[in-house]
Amino acid sequence: MSGRGKARAGAGSARAERAPARRRDRRIGKAAVPYLLGLPSWVYLLLFFLVPLASMLALSAAVGDPIVGYSYGGHFAEFLDAIGQYHRQLLRSFYYGALATLVTLAIAYPAAYWIAFHGGRHKSTYLFLIMLPFFVSFVIRTVAWQFILADQGFLFGQLKSWGLISDRFYILSTQWAVIGGLVYNGLAYYVLPLYVAIEKIDRRVVRAAGDLYADPASTFLRVILPLSAPGVFAGFLLVFVTDVGDFVNAQILGGPGTYMVGNVIQDSFFVNQDYPMAAALSSILMFLLMVAIFLYARAFGRERIQEYAA
Amino acid sequence: MTGLAPGPGRAVAAPGRGDGPGLAPRLLSLYTWLLILYAIVPIAVMVVFSFNQAPSGRVTLKWLGFTTAWYGHAFAVADLTDALVHSLEVAFGSMIVSVILGTPLALALARYRFRGKAVTDMVIFADIAAPAVVVGASLLSFFLTLNLPRGLLTILMAHIAFNVAFVVVVVRARVSGLDRALDRAAADLGATPWVAFWKVTFPLILPGIVAAGLLAFALSIDDLIITSFVSGQTLTFPLWIYGAVKTGIPPQVFVLSTFIFLGGVVLTLINTIVVRRNLP
Questions:
Q1: What is its main location (chain A) (predicted)?
Q2: Is B10's CB within 8 Å of A210's CB?
Q3: Which of 53-82 (B) contact A at CB < 8 A?
């Protein structure tokens, strides 16, 4: 930084003798550079990210309907209404989200560990294969699972015709289908940060644990797992937030009994056209997730989560 | 999970195990292949059923016989093809605009200290971490408040809004990895900052910009949740499929998705090969 400044000043000094005023202009100009560079994005994010969040909050405190119009103001009763009517779907979203994320972590970790430590020359090939679902649209992947899990599909239909499972057996429209869909869709998102974190672990530290007579289990629990924690936490955040806010898995693989808060928000907007209710529910979801992320970041450090989330 | 733990260090330290991989790594290798299989199964279903006969024009759950007919009529469902065109338009548009908006901010964040940097970081992080449902609902609230009719334009606006943050993060990582000495050398050789940027910095960060653009394109073409809030009557490819699930989807959905899948895989492999060749 300072070296560059010096070089700049050196280059500028010959001209500066002729025009000291211009030099001062350039300095002011230089200080403005980052602001000018950032300006377009800031304006855009202000207009299409921050202001919409504010208008969602405003709409959630409004009364009226789409035809008559809305009067904005402090009608916070909508929030109590939303919680009263839909607390079940809210709780269910967090329950499904937490359970699905934990299962995703449990199935992703061993593979990420093996690829990072034993993948050898083919590490990127293994990662590429696990990432293949990324190349298929999210909704198609979910539709494909609906196919696989269908009551009379090629899997269960066949098993039933062989008499291996009961004719009444089904998975679709149960919570297990929804959680299974969430797990599948989150898998690639979790493997990647885990892999990055485990790959960064210094092998000498692991070897040292062995040399100091740590058995494999304690080497894993006391050395590898803590050192891979950044990936565990970053992936958890990424997958959990995505899962809690999802409504596509619940819609395609589940039934009315598995509705999540996202489904209710959708229905409030497009079926009931109760915009304040929809906005209130979204605000509550945002608030709950913000509290969760804040506690998380406090415990762990935002910079590191950010680094891995990217 | 604990039983599967021994690292390479342990294998070396344990006498008699140094010759080859121990039991645990072998089990883990098998496990990883099973996980890969799990990841691929739905893709295989998609590809296989794109070759299945479907007398009713809707995909059926049972295997009725091999046919390539749907590949011959890949674009026969007019509104599905329209939806795909919409998706491509939005993906291209949002890719280009978000790269143009995001790259300068990434440069500012990577190279300058300025007031408001921490806040900017937080907003970028929030934009990425915010659940899609909330982003979609807030944009719809905004458009409803403005009384702005929803359609292709509002979809484009929404996609740029989430893509900008990803572009900033990806390009910034590339800029941070650059050696500042190169800039200084350019300045020492008399290049103005403007010339130094276009002749030195820009070519070096171009791979980061391309990667950011591809990510933006991929995120846009796959987005369903945010789009479902701001689309109005306009349908994108994922939205069309989502809407058709209840009544049954035509085989063309699987055919076009197979095309997209192969296109993405081929592009990625080409990109990998090009990057490897260019490495010193």
A1: membrane
A2: yes
A3: 59, 61-63
A13 & A97 share domain: no
Q: Residue B156 contacts by C-beta under 8 Å, 6 or more apart in sequence?
A: B90, B93, B94, B97
The answer to whether A289 and A241 have CB atoms below 8 angstroms apart is yes
Walk me through the domains of chain B, giving residue ranges and CATH numbers: 78-249 (1.10.3720.10)
Q: Specify the pLDDT at position A258.
A: 92
Q: What is the mean pLDDT of residues A60-74?
A: 72
The one-character DSSP state at B66 is: B
The larger pLDDT score, comparing residue A202 to residue A101, is at A101
Asked if A110 and B32 come within 8 Å (Cβ–Cβ), the reply is yes
**Cα–Cα distance, A265 to B63 (Å, whole number):** 37
Place of tokens 């010193």: B280
CATH for A277:
1.10.3720.10
Q: Which of B35, B47, B127, B183 to mutate to test the interface with A (most CBs of A within 10 A)?
A: B35
pLDDT in tens, B149-193: 999 999 999 999 999 999 999 999 989 888 888 888 888 888 888
pLDDT for B231 beyond 70: yes
Tell me the whole-structure pTM to 2 decimals.
0.85
Is A105 touching B (CB cutoff 8 A)? no
pLDDT score recorded for residue A102: 97
Considering the domain architecture, whether residues A35 and A155 belong to the same structural domain is answered as no
Q: Is A63 helix (H, G, I), strand (E, B) or coil?
A: strand
Q: How many residues does chain A have?
A: 310
Domains contained in chain A, number: 2
Q: Check the CA dihedral A269-A275-A281-A285 and report its sign.
A: positive
Of B13, B32, B46, nearest to A136 by CB-CB distance is B46
A101 and A17: one domain?
no
Average pLDDT on A121-142 reads 92
Q: Which domain holds residue A295?
A: 76-309
Q: Which residues of A200-234 are buried (b: 16+ CB within 10 A; e: fewer)?
A: ebeeeebbebbeeebebeebbeebbbebbebbbbb
How many angstroms separate the CA atoms of A110 and A187, rounded? 12
For residue A209, give the nearest of B9, B145, B180 by CB distance: B9
Angle (nearest 5°) at CA A11 between A9 and A14: 100
Please check whether residues A10 and A105 belong to one and the same domain: no
Question: A134 and A209: one domain?
Answer: yes
* A43 and A131 belong to one structural domain: no
Highest mean pLDDT, choosing among A70-84, A94-108, B238-252:
A94-108
Work out the minimum CA distance from A308 to partner chain B, whole angstroms: 11
Rounded Cα distance between B164 and A41, Å, is: 7
Residues A176 and A36 both lie in one domain: no
Task: Round to whole Å and give the CA distance between A44 and B264.
Answer: 29
Mean pLDDT across the stretch A39-57? 95
For residue A198, give the H/E element and its range.
helix A175-199
Q: Specify whether the CB–CB gap between B169 and B101 falls below 8 A.
A: no
